[in-house]
Amino acid sequence: MKGIMNMLKSLFVLFAASGLAQAASSLTPVPCNLAFSAAYLEGQDFNCHQLSVPARHQDPAKGSYSLHILRIKSPFHSPGTPTIMLNGGPGGTLDGFLQMWLRPDLYNPAAKPEWMNAFLQQGDVILYDQRGTGKSEPETSCQTVSSMEECIKAVQEKGVDVTTLTTVESAEDLEDLKLALGGKINLYGLSYGTYLAQKHLKYHPDGIQKVVLQGVMDTRRFRDLDQGAYVAQVIQLCETSPICTRWYPTLKTDYVALLDQLTLKPVVVHSLGQDFTIDQHVLNFLLFMEGYSQALEIPRSIDQLALGDFSKLVQEQGMYLTPQSPINSAMNQMMGVHMYCAIDPQETPCKEANYAYLPDPADYNAPLQTDLPVLLLSGQLDPITPPALAEQVQKGLKNHLHVVLPAGGHGSYGNPQELQCTVHILSDFLESGTAVNQDCLQDLPPLNFLPPL
């Protein structure tokens, strides 16, 4: 299973009116237990529901799961199409999405429009915990075990059928949610959410108005990512920046020396209540993870590491080495296995899997073909879903726009100017489609690497 673990670490027909009514009836109000700020009230500005979905859509007799759904009400006049937002991961939660995008200061229509308001201007925003995550069923967390096999075994012992934890089933959940909302939506996906969105679009394109995919996965192939090559890419970009070169004149030499040093003698760092052994592979992994949202800080991190200070990097990124890591739930592991093995079931780790495994349908990974308007957002510094992946996906999109943010990471924006430019393009796209003015991209500042501490 080592190959799968390495991959994970670097990581949905027109229905009759009666069908719509039946789906909508399964939405049940529940408390949110959330608070944006004192100015926004549950029931007035947002509310929550549960949606019952079959555990196995092709065999409803196998039971059901309850999904937890949050609806943020649009404060704008005459809102129209709601947007369903798909979390990343697999395994990302609604709460995690809120922490990243829906801070109280962003949910403020009286302020200068920000990223979320572009969607709220179109209609309500719908977030939900996908099956196996957050407050949705089944419960798949297992943070006290040390291996993927032990985690899956522990969840199975709770009575969970782990073979229901697939993108195939999650894509059908999304169809049920879409119908419960009236059958007409915009769709936003982030990271794994782009994979889920593509699978939904392949089989259930009806009712989708516009699609935004950010941090785009290519559903047709996976690969073990060369984390060291990513770090080398950031170093090369620093070397093309006069100010970064002035701050870090020996950056490449320092990095190579660090790798050599850690190959000969790994460093033990005590942080987050435990000891971490840092060798060259762990170092590249931690720097790779830093690139998700803080790529412009990597030269500074290497500079500190060269001085012998490993504490800051380990404190910020070491969580991904612990059982508490979001990549260490059975849901994440099973989803990851299915994505990986659906592409090439003959891979050795897939053939050696020692637990129940249901492969995806034979045609499931054929390229997506659609004429729906699709906006692709990529970050030049994204370590896990670089722009090249979006370029592969866009070959099947007849009506698309691909925007690459020079300082952007994985679903992040390198600076305020890039955020504002993205908001402008996003707002225009949601309003009128792919024919939008992109001039703001030409005015973005150069890469602004962080200075030494």
Automatic annotation (TrEMBL):
A single MF term (Gene Ontology): hydrolase activity
InterPro entries: AB_hydrolase_1, AB_hydrolase_fold, AB_hydrolase_sf
Keywords, alphabetical: Hydrolase, Signal
Domain AB hydrolase-1 as annotated: residue spans: 85-412
Matching Pfam families: Abhydrolase_1
Signal peptide: 1-23
Full protein name: Alpha/beta hydrolase
Species this protein is from: Deinococcus roseus
